[in-house]
Amino acid sequence: MNPIPFLAEHRALNAAAVAAYMGLIFLGSSMSGTGVPSTFGHYVSLLHIPEYAVLSALVYPLFMGKRHPLPLAIFICVLYGISDEMHQSFVPGRDTSPLDIIYDGVGATLGALLSRRWGGSR
User: Fold this and answer.
1) What is the C-alpha to C-alpha distance for residues 62 and 38, in angstroms, rounded to an integer?
2) How far is residue 61's CA from residue 69's CA, in Å, rounded to a whole number?
């Protein structure tokens, strides 16, 4: 079973999955700087790519059948990434990084492209 058309047909379930995943991202960003593993140094920022690829793959089916679903999904995810970076500025031991937003955009683009490919171009 292909999950992308399934999610597109079950919008409430799709929206719940997006909200839950955004909640997980928010919780992860709420960890203080002392709770974030620093073993990999700045390479931890690269985790934004798969993190936002998954988010975008979940967001894309919400816009299938609409005009320009690909840029809409990417825009929503990058906007959420920007808000997440702003949120981190209020968390002790965390800071914001424009590079993280770039990684969010790369991941969002990859996720939306893969979702479009798997789900067909509705």
Assistant:
1) 35
2) 8
Global pTM value: 0.88
Kindly give, in sequence order, each residue whose CB lies less than 8 Å from that of residue 92, ignoring residues fewer than 6 positions away: 32, 33
Asked if 52 and 77 count as a contact pair (C-beta separation under 8 A), the reply is yes
Please classify residue 113 by burial: count the beta carbons closer than 10 Å to its beta carbon, then call 0-12 exposed, 13-18 middle and 19+ buried: middle
Residue 34 exposed, middle or buried by CB count within 10 Å (0-12, 13-18, 19+):
exposed
Convert the pLDDT of each residue in 95-115 to its tens digit. Answer: 888 999 999 999 999 999 999
The structure tokens listed for 119 are 């789900």
CB 30 within 8 A of CB 84: no
Q: Are 101 and 40 in contact (CB under 8 A)?
A: no
Q: How far apart are CA 79 and CA 36, in angstroms?
A: 23
Q: Count the domains in the chain.
A: 1
Would you mind telling me the total number of residues written for the chain in this entry? 122
Domain of 111, in residue numbers = 3-119
